[in-house]
Amino acid sequence: MLVKRTVTGIKPTGTPHVGNYIGAIKPALQLAENPERETMYFMADLHALNAVHDARKLKEMTYEVAATWLALGLNPDTSLFYRQSEVPELVELQWILASVTSKGLMNRAHAYKARVSENMEHDREADDGINMGLYNYPVMMAADILMFQGDEVPVGKDNVQHVEMARDIAGAFNRTYEDTFKLPSHVINEHGAVVPGLDGRKMSKSYDNTIPLFVEEHVLEKLVKRVITDSKGPDEPKDTNNSTLFTLYQEFATNEEIAQMKRSYQEGIGYGKIKEELFRVMNRTLQTPRSVYRELMNDQQKIDQLLHEGAGRARNEAQTMMHTVKKRVGLK
Ligand code: TRP
Questions:
Q1: Which of 58, 46, 9, 53 is nearest to 136 (CA)?
Q2: CB 44 less than 6 A from any atom of ligand 1
Q3: Is the Cβ atom of 153 under 6 angstroms away from ligand 1?
Q4: Same domain, residue pair 63 and 154
Q5: How far apart are CA 149 and CA 315, in angstroms?
Q6: Domain for residue 112, yes or no?
Q7: Helix 271-297 to helix 55-71 angle, to the nearest 10 degrees?
């Protein structure tokens, strides 16, 4: 059996919400169960540094996000789970890769370009407020992927270009020295349909329309009641397409429940009832993870220990790789 290696970074910024769960966490955990995949999932805390300059906040977010993945079922025995900053070889590799990466390539990064155009619109200097961490972001990401010879990299649409850049950087190194790095491919890790938030727009922290994953039960219930619907009466037939409630329901309900709900939509069911039912299935899925999450957050040493063990295993590999890389470039 040909086992592919899957590598992906999780940026510890923002409290994880239902959109993150459906779009990224759930598919990543499913992939981890696939015997044809070897998965490496890490907390990209070095990447977060260009945006988060509050030490306490970065530390807390790293725990929150790591605890979320563990609570939802990430198994650190099956997946290699670690903190990026605990594998310092990645930073060494980043420097070596930077030395074969053309600056022009980095100038074309969408994330960087978006910041530049924003500055231009506001009559500011092109690079105003842009730090080198942001500029070098794609090189660090290339190091994350290439260090471990990743085959595939699940990412959201906004990170596809970064994976293409990692490929370009690998190619540049291989041509300059000798064939060393595998060329990775991206896998779009996004749900076919966009996960809608409370107001029907894409669920996103920046729209302030999220349902955080592990709020207390009564808060979850209240949030579900706040989901915006149209003004159809209880007896009127309703369309499951473009229904925020139905889209969310599908992610948490069984196939029979989904079929039943479809019939109810056709026959007429009140929005209050649909919301009660949505809350019930969401809570059923989140109840146990919610308490595991609480336990982990009360025992951060346990999280540290799990991440540290993972980092140890990742480092073994990273050190072997760095030995080769350093020889090839003349540092050894
Ligand atoms: N840039 C990714 C994000 O915004 C996080 C990330 C860091 C990553 N390093 C990576 C993703 C390597 C895939 C591979 O979420």
A1: 46
A2: yes
A3: yes
A4: yes
A5: 14
A6: no
A7: 110
CA-based R_g, the chain, Å: 22
Give the tens place of pLDDT for each residue, 266-282: 999 999 999 999 999 99
163 Cα to the center of ligand 1, angstroms: 9
Q: How far is the CA of 29 from the centre of ligand 1 (A)?
A: 16
CB 51 within 8 A of CB 93: no
Is residue 126 a part of any domain in this protein?
Answer: no
Ligand 1, atom 1: closest residue by C-alpha:
159
CATH classification at residue 52: 3.40.50.620
Using the mean position of ligand 1's atoms as its centre, give its distance from the Cα of residue 8 in Å: 6
Residue of 162, 185, 205 with the most ligand 1 atoms within 8 Å of its CB, for mutation: 162
Q: Are β-strands 4-10 and 185-188 bridged in parallel, bridged antiparallel, or unpaired?
A: unpaired
pLDDT tens track for 195-211: 999 999 999 999 999 99
Atom of ligand 1 nearest to the CA of 159: 1
Q: What is the pLDDT at residue 194?
A: 83
